[in-house]
């Protein structure tokens, strides 16, 4: 029998998690794990007082620091007569990456089990640790569910606002295209509000992305229509200006243009007329 090593002591509480017993050929194995109770206090549990072996192991944060900044742990074990049993439990704590202490109590039934006993030690220890993880995970799960509920309410409200915006923008686009905004025919059915409450959060998040993309597309279409309208107005204004230039009134034939003195007729009127009189003899001018 190996000498029982001294295990870290600590304040005793009721925070311990116990596995289901494993029974094999009259031997019984039960494990208890606690993140805060010391291994010594777990060994002193009254329900283990009649056990043949009370195998223990512990793993606690160390005050030492490594150069790689990784956490350092102090580990130890107590075989309590079950050779290599304590080291087996110590490896269980390291593999599970937990701190605290675990004890496996064995009641020997008179039949030697051989190496399979170490499998029983590992299994019941892992089960006790798994029970602790499940218990401590419940509050976190409840918090996540509450957070998901609040997020779902927010997403449903946002999607309803997006649907209203899409409806308004579609009507505006139809008006700019010269179509009827309220309906396109007698057979059209009025849009119904979608019920988003049965959908999970992931689906609501995807729908939000789809609605945002739809709004972006409608806004681009409205911008295109407005650009076409502006271009048509500019073309009509240009044609209107050209037609006004062509219809300017031209002067009539009876109106005489104003001629400045010294030009045109004025010069001709100022010159004396020279007349030539011809006599009877053809070709002889009369003086």
List keywords for this structure.
disordered C terminus; alpha+beta; six-stranded antiparallel β-sheet; single chain; 287 residues
Description:
45% of the residues lie in helices and 13% in strands. The chain has five helices and six strands. The longest helix is centred in the middle third of the chain and has 61 residues, at 116-176. The protein is rod-shaped, with a radius of gyration of 52 Å.
- Poorly predicted ranges (pLDDT <50, ≥5 residues)? 1-12, 180-190, 276-287
Could you give the distance between the termini?
A: 177 Å
Radius of gyration: 52 Å
Mean pLDDT: 79
Shape: rod-shaped
Which structural class best describes the helix and strand composition?
A: alpha+beta
Task: Write the topology of this structure.
Elements lengths: L16 E2 L3 E3 L2 E8 L4 H5 L9 E9 L11 E6 L6 H12 L3 E8 L8 H61 L24 H46 L18 H6 L17
In short:
This protein has helices at 39-43, 85-96, 116-176, 201-246, 265-270, and strands at 17-18, 22-24, 27-34, 53-61, 73-78, 100-107.
